[in-house]
Amino acid sequence: MIGLSLVSLVKIKNSDIKNAIKKSLELINYKFSKDIRNIVIKPNLCYYWDYSTGQTTDPRFIATLIELINENLSKHVNISIVESDASAMICKYAFRMLGYEKLAEKYNVKLVNLSKESRNPVQVTVGKEFLHFTVPKIIQEADLKINVPK
Asked: In which order are the strands placed within the sheet that holds 110-113?
């Protein structure tokens, strides 16, 4: 089965992140399924730049998203914030420098470096072409995958 990728874009008014996220979910008619147990959230942490530069995802946005997940599902859902090492960025340092370690501690979520995770091979068909690559197991096993770019 192929999953749908839904996108919405909402302007945040008066720093009201929570209502902006709720509105965004309404626009795509998203309702949290009570069957969700494992969630991965992928922010954009492309380098060590603070979110104010416009290069990385604001940890306050991720914190609010986690609060909404906890309100709509349970505080016992497994949530992992995931990112990969890059040529000029080591994930563990980015998590620390950009405020994600404190966020993970406060909300009891995991920080996962996808570069160090076990992977499984997958095949995707695009037109008549077959593409083969590997995907981290944590992503394959997640009931909900949330991509939060800047």
From this structure: 110-113, 78-83, 38-43, 144-148
State the Cα–Cα distance between residues 145 and 110, nearest whole angstrom.
14
Distance CA 28, CA 8 (A): 7
Confidence of residue 77 (pLDDT cuts 50, 70, 90): very high
* Token pair recorded at residue 43: 């922010």
Q: 53 lies in a domain?
A: yes
Residue 16 lies in a domain: no
CA distances to 3, 23, 24, 28, 117 from 6, rounded to whole Å, are 10, 14, 10, 6, 26
Q: Average of pLDDT values for 131-149?
A: 94
Residue 135 lies in a domain: no
Is residue 61 domain-resident? yes
Model pLDDT, residue 1: 40
Helix (H, G, I), strand (E, B) or coil at 123: strand
Residue pair 85/112 in contact (Cβ under 8 Å)? The answer is no
Q: What is the pTM of this model?
A: 0.89
Token reading at 97 = 């420098």
The CATH number of residue 69's host domain is 3.40.50
What's the structural domain count of the chain?
1
Which pLDDT tens digit goes with each residue over 80-111? 999 999 988 999 999 999 999 999 999 999 99
